[in-house]
Amino acid sequence: ATIIKVDSDTNKPVAGAVLVIKDSTGKEIDRFTTTTEPYVLKDIADGTYTVEEEKAPAGYEKTDETYEFTISDTNNKAEITIENTPIEKLVNILKVDAETGNPLSGATLVVKDSDGNVVEEFVTTEEAHTITDLKDGEYTVEEVKAPDGYKKSDEVYTFTISDETPTALIIFENNEIVDVPFTGSNKSLISTIFGTVLLISGVGFVYYNGKKQEVK
């Protein structure tokens, strides 16, 4: 029996899976770790056998499927191809209003890896932005440009991607720019300043007139 483990997307051989072969009574007759070369099981007795995955290769989902093959005088060779689906590794990033939680478009964000290399730079929309095919490691998300009407955030968000945590969700908040309203107190302050200016001008005028009268 020839057994090979492959990537379900590319059909390329995958190393690192632990497979177990059992006979029809459930007795284990062989156990091995896959390589990129086919595994050949020789000199086995006639009968029906199963192949199961005990441990998935790194970066792949474990398959629960049981593969079966039969060996006999008329069927003395079997080829078993066992597929593994890659673990999908991605991050979803959503920009929102800090007060309302509503999605915000127009912010420019940059995602970097642990070495500071730019993985992707994008402008937010009202939908979450998805980055796929991430390698295992730690990443950061920073804001380069704030949405119109909002303060630029100096916060740096960090997330980690691995087989144990293959996906991440980042909700990036922005605070709205608040205009100071023109209230009665503002008017009073301006009136006070204006009145003071007039008063000073009046004093100067009286003083000037007084000087003119002394000259005469």
Work out the strand percent: 35-45%
Radius of gyration: 37 Å
* Structure summary, number of beta strands: 14
Q: How much helix is in the residues?
A: 10-25%
The best one-word shape is rod-shaped
Please trace the helix and strand order, writing H or E for each element: EEEEEEEEEEEEEEH
How is the biggest beta sheet arranged?
Answer: 4 strands, antiparallel
Secondary-structure content class: mainly beta
Average pLDDT number:
87
Give the N-to-C terminal Cα separation: 129 Å
What low-confidence regions span 5 or more consecutive residues with pLDDT below 50?
A: 196-216
How many helices does DSSP assign?
1
Which strand order does the major sheet show?
3-2-5-6
Q: What do these coordinates show?
A:
There is one protein chain. By secondary structure, the protein is mainly beta. The protein has one helix and 14 strands. The chain has one helix spanning about 185-215, and strands at about 1-5, 20, 30-35, 40, 45-55, 65-70, 80-85, 90-95, 110-115, 120-125, 130, 135-145, 155-160, 165-175. A four-stranded antiparallel β-sheet has the order 3-2-5-6, with no helix packed on it. The radius of gyration is 37 Å and the shape is rod-shaped. It starts with a strand and ends with a helix.
